[in-house]
Amino acid sequence: MRKVKVDLGEKSYHIVIGSGLGEELQRFIAAADFSRKALLVTDSNVGPLYGQQIKSLLQEAGLCVELAEIPAGERSKCLAVAESLYTKAIELGLDRRSPIFALGGGVVGDLTGFVAATYMRGVPFIQLPTSLLAQVDSSVGGKVAVNHALGKNLIGSFYQPKAVFMDLSLMRTLPKREIATGMGEIIKYGVIYDPDFFSFLEQNRQAVLNLEPDAATHMIARSCEIKADVVSQDEQEAGLRRILNFGHTMAHAIERETGYVRYNHGEAVAIGMIGAADISCRMGLISESVKQRLIDLVERMHLPLLADGCDVDAMYHDIFHDKKTVGGKVNWVLMTGIGSVICRDDVPEDVVRQAMAARISQ
Ligand SMILES: NC(=O)c1ccc[n+]([C@@H]2O[C@H](COP(=O)([O-])OP(=O)(O)OC[C@H]3O[C@@H](n4cnc5c(N)ncnc54)[C@H](O)[C@@H]3O)[C@@H](O)[C@H]2O)c1
Ligand SMILES: O=C(O)C(=O)C[C@@H](O)[C@H](O)[C@H](O)COP(=O)(O)O
Ligand SMILES: [Zn+2]
């Protein structure tokens, strides 16, 4: 078992990483000051696999738990589904100390966190991430949100969980495509922070894709350490935290233009990272060979290099809804090498358009 601390003063919490974490979770609940009534939110794929098992664990720990199942998929990350969860919470009589647990991927985590942040102005929230992407990224750091028809994650808050329990054994049912999806965000950590981690991924590609225990534990723990380090220094994205958004300016435009269904988030991030590397190259910040190293790793992790169903004008329009766009200026996270990035708000329109055109299937 590994533990990583997210150091945020009174809001600090631990990420617990291991296989079969039931007892750890029960000990945490026993020590917490929660009301008895609790809500466990999951989705229609994860619920049938693990819903009852986790519900029983929580009941054994003394909670009176109701299971709420939302339809699987990004489309559920919306205000209408959030409202159905508020209704459930009110009907169950959840009070200000009632914990809400998110059991699932990033969709369940972001949506449930948003509900926990806003129901009665905030109730305890615990992340039980089950997808690779959720374990390495979305369950950590407290960004909670729902999507709006006009853009990704546009309605949200910063709301930290009380704890995160990552049980690697729950990922044995994860489809291969979802493992590759998680790799999109994992590669990001190598690019923005840690060249040795990037090399580790290059050298252990098959072991990490197979989620072999040692390789997977290192990959997940190192990703969490990097995210925890960044978030601990800049919880609300005043500066440094922007680097966690590497690849996301184009990714969010691709997701919006394809209705949030054609590409998984981590796939869109993979395409967006190459787009950002391309801009970096055109701006003279990196060489072609550095960009190619990223392209090679993305491709070898079975992630897409090009987006179908997008056009440059629409994507260019979308980036002005990005949260890093301030005063009409888009803040791009660009590479200066493998392991280092900078923010630039002076990328010319034609450079952005050329890089976008290069990422679109013709
Ligand atoms: N808050 C953040 O910091 C942050 C960071 C990264 C991504 N995100 C968000 O996370 C979302 C993407 O998360 P995701 O990739 O986990 O998508 P997801 O939640 O849709 O999960 C992917 C698929 O895998 C299934 N699944 C999950 N765990 C499983 C398991 N153990 N066995 C079998 N199937 C399982 C789900 O039902 C779903 O069909 C996006 O909305 C993205 O914007 C948020
Ligand atoms: O935690 C962060 O900070 C991130 O940017 C992580 C991203 O991987 C994640 O997709 C996040 O939800 C994007 O945030 P947004 O603020 O661009 O919506
Ligand atoms: Zn992301």
TrEMBL record:
Known cofactor(s): NAD(+); Co(2+); Zn(2+)
Classification via InterPro entries: Dehydroquinate_synthase, DHQ_synth_AroB, DHQ_synth_fam, DHQS/DOIS_N, DHQS_C
Protein name as catalogued: 3-dehydroquinate synthase
Lineage: Bacteria, Bacillati, Bacillota, Negativicutes, Selenomonadales
Known role: Catalyzes the conversion of 3-deoxy-D-arabino-heptulosonate 7-phosphate (DAHP) to dehydroquinate (DHQ).
Enzyme class: lyase
Subcellular location: Cytoplasm
Record family assignment: Belongs to the sugar phosphate cyclases superfamily. Dehydroquinate synthase family.
Organism of this sequence: Selenomonas montiformis
Domain of life: Bacteria
CDD domains noted in UniProt: DHQS
Binding site for Zn(2+): E185, H248, H265
